[in-house]
From TrEMBL:
Gene from which this protein is expressed: rsgA
Protein name from the UniProt record: Small ribosomal subunit biogenesis GTPase RsgA
Listed Basic residues bias regions: 19-29
Domain named CP-type G: residues: 108-260
The organism of origin for this protein: Halostreptopolyspora alba
Main location: cytoplasm
Amino acid sequence: MSAGRRHFDEGDVPLRARGGSRPRTRNRPKHEDAKLGFVTAVDRGRYTCLVEDRTILAMKARELGRGSITVGDRVWLVGDLSGRPDTLARVVRVAERQSVLRRTADDTDPVERIIVANADQLAIVSSLADPPPQPRLIDRCLVAAYDAGLRPLLCLTKADLATPDDVLATYASLNLAYVVTRGDDGLGELARQLAGRVSVLVGSSGVGKSTLVNLLVPEAGRTVGDVNPVTGRGRHTSTSAVALALADGWIIDTPGLRSFGLAHVSPDDVIAGFPDLDEAVAECPPGCAHTADSPDCALDSGVAAGRLEPARVSSLRRLLASREDTDGGGSH
Ligand SMILES: Nc1nc2c(ncn2[C@@H]2O[C@H](COP(=O)(O)OP(=O)(O)OP(=O)(O)O)[C@@H](O)[C@H]2O)c(=O)[nH]1
Ligand SMILES: [Zn+2]
């Protein structure tokens, strides 16, 4: 969409992109005068929306009931759309979402949280050191991306501190799009990968998301935190998701992740989130649980033959086991 030029209107919504034969008028039930906006931030029941070239604040109309509104949503707005201080518009309808990125608090939590709507790329940001890469968190993000139909983009930061070779080797067979940055080095390639897309940036606290966002969108002024020298963790400096306009496209910065629960993803879809392993798994005996003690699990023979990456196999196994853990096991 062309909204990256800080302008948003009806042309930016592929209202009927996904099949659906309902007449277009159904999209605007009562409010003939409603205008379309793009939700860039959500804060305690207040929605910041871009409408044409104005940033306005809105609340949910009562008729929307408990329906959720999230960053990335395209919404129909009525009321005062001037954007003047102390005005509040009302969201009367949420346009059909093209994608929904979800997570749960842990792998057994039934409550899904929607992180972002309508994104088409998940930029998984991981520092190469300080804090060190967390391949299991990356794997979880990959599963979530594939499940939501988003293109994953691996974004490896702080290459001045460590080489990306090991991380890249782990994911080599996935043919992931990736960028490696050190400071502002690598930014051109990152900008190229983000162009024309709505990208969600996720990663642990301190991996350098805000630093990247500030380089890409200097006027955003995202707070850059310090990494605690003792724990190697960043301060929790960003507190909610926010969409920022690029020259072409959007980036949606999210608060530092501590976990990425996948209770909402079925075991089959978890396996599908490991496209480097799912062919091997197809050779498993019927009913194979793919755990380390499953007899004749094809993951074992694949590793033994050097065809599968051991770190990825153990990651998949941990993930499947964590979902079985009804005591609410960890989600790292
Ligand atoms: N050495 C090195 N340090 C970097 C680089 N990029 C960022 N940093 C530092 O890493 C620390 C954390 O960066 P942030 O951009 O605040 O990290 P974040 O991911 O936004 O963290 P949260 O806001 O907590 O989610 C800061 O001290 C940055 O200066 C890099 O390429 N190399
Ligand atoms: Zn198996």
